[in-house]
């Protein structure tokens, strides 16, 4: 069997989860590919359709922001549904969520998003790792490694069920009761996030890592105007966590990376 996963990862959690899932699938003698939906990848409609047509199962992988999806992933799923509606394809679909605190989104919300696309939800799992949003709270590496082990076990169960033609649907529970309330507030906060970002001129080396790595192309640099953060920001924290000198500020505050270590994903 062949599985193809479209994924978005802010600073590494979801990428690790998909890479782990693909390694499990490959070890079982099957094929697994993954493709980022970042702006820089410039996926064409034909490329997306070709991946879906060639696969036995389609994966969607992303972090959870409060009770919803990152805007970049929501937009991609809307695009995917529009492309597939005329195709009349029938593909098993699995979703890999990563989160830091709680996932208040749930499989029923995903089913609504996939309606009329031919993508049938056969797998939905939640992988708890570490939150990459709170710079004031350092990552507990021991806790992270325990969660990675649990995540790998859950991804193994997902792979086994999909290969056996069975469903693996997790994510139902009392946490979903607060999801609707959270989803009313989170979109506005995300939409305004770009307004909180800035650059600490004293430490910035103008290496352009933030510009080059922004998944939505929402950071621009001009010699006269400096750095500009744009409304397309998906609030992934990649610029803040990935800056080599820790020079991205939030709300005008510079966090010394020696005092506030950045989160670069579930790595040793």
Automatic annotation (TrEMBL):
Domain of life: Bacteria
Keyword Iron-sulfur found: yes
Pfam families: Fer4_10, FMN_red
Keyword 4Fe-4S tagged: yes
Keywords, comma-separated and alphabetical: 4Fe-4S, Iron, Iron-sulfur, Metal-binding
Domain 4Fe-4S ferredoxin-type: 195-224, 225-253
NCBIfam families (UniProt xref): ferrodoxin_EFR1
This protein's name: 4Fe-4S ferredoxin-type domain-containing protein
Protein source organism: Acetobacterium fimetarium
